[in-house]
Amino acid sequence: MPAQLTLRQDHELVWCSRWPYRRPVPTAALAGFLTGASLIVAIGAQNAFVLRQGLSRHHVLLVVAVCAVSDLVLILAGVAGVGALVQRAPLVLVVVRYAGAAFLLGYGLLAARRALRGGQLDPAAARELSARGVLAAALAFTWLNPHVYLDTVLLVGSVASTHGARGRWWFAAGACLASVTWFTLLGYGARGLAPVFRHRLAWRVLDAGIAVVMLALAVSLLVSA
């Protein structure tokens, strides 16, 4: 083992060579946190869904857990090098693209209908999806989005690789922390807006915004196909 042999000859030389990432560890973790946050904190279908569930206070823990765990799996897969496999399977992305577009189109139309009809004044009294329906929707919003494979898997994996064999896992830890923090704040922090959403108009504006986001994303997926 060269590290131990060199230790007997020159202690200081080996100390540096055996711990090459001792100093960059905080930097890699911070870079991962900022990179993960920049990809997650954006107006999108998944965030809009989490926000609405947080406001209605229905199955919030389930939604936050599904979105966060899914993100963690994708981040770790990207850092582990799965991105190379994704690039070699373009047909899978095509299928995901059309399936995701269909799902977003359907959900967007439902949101538009809610906006036209008006929501409930009391979020707790609104008719919501069952736990099984919420689980299916949360999984669909995450895994039927082709951009999640390009951004989270390919981009995060590529940036993480610049931090070295050991530093990339600290980068992944930072990105995972950003994901868990964001979805927790979005899901449970939405309750702070509850006074605003006691008014019917606020729910109609929210659902109209969700409809626009969903339909725009669906169209973008179809156009870029």
Structure in words:
The protein is mainly α. It has one domain. Helices cover 79% and strands 0% of the residues. The chain is built from eleven helices and no strands. Helix 5 packs parallel to helix 8 (131-143) and helix 7 (90-117) runs antiparallel to helix 11. The chain is globular. Residues 1-23 and 121-126 have low confidence and may be disordered.
Question: Top keywords for this entry?
Answer:
disordered N terminus, mainly alpha, 225 residues
Provide a compact summary of the structure.
With 225 residues, this protein is mainly α. Helix content is 79%, strand content 0%. It contains eleven helices and no strands.
Shape: globular
If you average the pLDDT, what whole number results?
A: 79
Unreliable parts: 1-23, 121-126
First-to-last CA distance = 52 Å
**Tally of distinct domains:** 1
Q: Count helical runs.
A: 11
Largest sheet: none
User: Which strand-content bin applies to the residues?
Assistant: under 5%
Output the radius of gyration.
Answer: 22 Å
SSE topology string:
HHHHHHHHHHH
- Count of individual beta strands: 0
Structural class: mainly alpha
Oligomer: single chain
Helix coverage percent: over 70%
